[in-house]
């Protein structure tokens, strides 16, 4: 059975999920304010540049005088520095909230315990580490970015029942388009995932053969920023990734001037390519990325051990021959049936 503190931190996590896909590079924090064992205020992080969760929770309290006798719960240590918004720790102190319960400390170098020190220094009673495991899972994107200096990396692909990610070239039509392996429900789920992550990445071959839009069509939400590997700038204007509808970063070996929504970044494609890609992604402050293909690109990240989750659909079709699917040798944590499809999820703990 959960303790009282655990119950309210659980609610904070639930609230924080409302910010998924909108708060990055900020973490999706949730906060509640409790008076006399009753929630009197709730909040979660606004889209990037807006209020943090604690501010929204405090602002939602109708009777501000109750704050002096309340407890504030929050999934992540309140910030103590001026960024796009003032420090949350200062606001908590200003409102004389006597107790704060925190899921986990913030590893960001500008916070890292300073928020807790500010609260304790004002006489506030602080409890740390409530539902710590659950809060770390909730904040996995932010924590990976802060600790590993790279985004949280999700690999996604669909493979046939006989282990192929794509058919032979002669099976494709003249017009570049996806060759579907999974059903429409699985494909809709992928669009939901796209709305949840900050960016999406594919290689040159995927663009040339499938001409993907890499946007959200069967779901609602913000399109992820597109990242395209194009070593020799083979992709021309007939492909969707050059339509300027969404910010797109091309990673190439050639020098090219950036313009409008098209950004060009150069790397050396000879050695440690996945790490160089991660460095570019970190430069742009991407806390998460969904890598959708192709097989060589995904396998390169697997072999470099630069990934956190693999989400693998197995469709009820077979190709007999074609491009072999990537191979991941890690613990499978979940298997889900989506009608005739199977979704296997692997974790790289």
Describe the structure in your own words.
- The strands form three sheets. Strands 11-10-9-8-12-6-13-16-15 form a nine-stranded mixed β-sheet, sandwiched between helices. Strands 2-1-3-4-5 form a five-stranded mixed β-sheet, with helices on both faces.
- It contains ten helices and 16 strands.
- The protein has 349 residues and is an alpha/beta fold.
- Helix 3 packs parallel to helix 4.
- It folds into two domains: 4-143, Cytidine Deaminase, domain 2 (3-Layer(aba) Sandwich), CATH 3.40.140; 150-347, Dihydrofolate Reductase, subunit A (3-Layer(aba) Sandwich), CATH 3.40.430.10.
- It has helices at 4-16, 53-59, 88-94, 114-121, 132-138, 140-148, 184-196, 204-210, 273-283, 295-303; strands at residues 30-35, 38-44, 71-76, 99-104, 125-128, 152-159, 164-166, 199-202, 225-229, 248-252, 262-266, 288-293, 309-314, 323-324, 332-338, 341-347.
- NADP(+) binds at residues 158, 180, 210, 294-300.
- This is Riboflavin biosynthesis protein RibD.
- Its EC number is 3.5.4.26, 1.1.1.193.
């Amino acid at each position: 059975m959960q303790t009282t503190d655990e119950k309210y931190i659980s609610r904070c996590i639930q609230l924080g999920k409302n910010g998924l896909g909108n708060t990055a590079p900020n973490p999706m924090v949730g906060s509640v304010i409790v008076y006399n064992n009753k929630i009197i205020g709730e909040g979660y992080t606004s889209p990037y540049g807006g209020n943090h969760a604690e501010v929204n929770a405090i602002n939602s309290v109708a009777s501000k005088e109750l704050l002096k006798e309340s407890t504030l719960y929050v999934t992540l240590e309140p910030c103590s520095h001026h960024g796009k918004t003032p420090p949350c720790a200062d606001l908590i102190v200003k409102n004389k909230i006597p107790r704060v319960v925190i899921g986990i400390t913030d590893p960001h170098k500008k916070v890292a315990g300073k928020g807790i020190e500010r609260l304790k220094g004002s006489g506030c009673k602080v409890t740390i580490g409530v539902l710590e495991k659950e809060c770390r899972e909730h904040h996995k994107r932010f924590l990976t970015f802060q600790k590993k200096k790279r985004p949280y990396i999700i690999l996604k692909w669909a493979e046939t029942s006989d282990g192929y990610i794509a058919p032979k070239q002669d099976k494709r039509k003249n017009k570049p388009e996806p060759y579907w392996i999974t059903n429409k429900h699985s494909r809709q789920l992928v669009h939901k995932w796209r709305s949840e992550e900050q960016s999406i990445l594919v290689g040159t071959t995927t663009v040339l053969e499938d001409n993907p839009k890499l946007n959200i069509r069967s779901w609602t939400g913000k399109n992820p920023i597109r990242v395209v590997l194009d070593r020799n700038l083979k992709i021309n204007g007939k492909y969707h990734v050059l339509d300027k509808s969404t910010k797109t970063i091309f990673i190439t070996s050639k020098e090219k001037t950036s313009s409008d929504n098209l950004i060009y970044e150069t790397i050396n494609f000879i050695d440690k390519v996945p790490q160089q890609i991660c460095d570019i992604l970190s430069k742009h402050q991407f806390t998460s990325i969904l890598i959708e293909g192709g097989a060589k690109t995904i396998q390169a990240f697997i072999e470099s051990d630069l990934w956190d989750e693999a989400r693998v659909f197995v469709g009820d079709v077979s190709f007999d021959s074609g491009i072999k699917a990537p191979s991941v040798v890690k613990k499978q944590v979940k298997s889900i049936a989506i009608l005739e499809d199977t979704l296997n999820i692997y974790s790289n703990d």
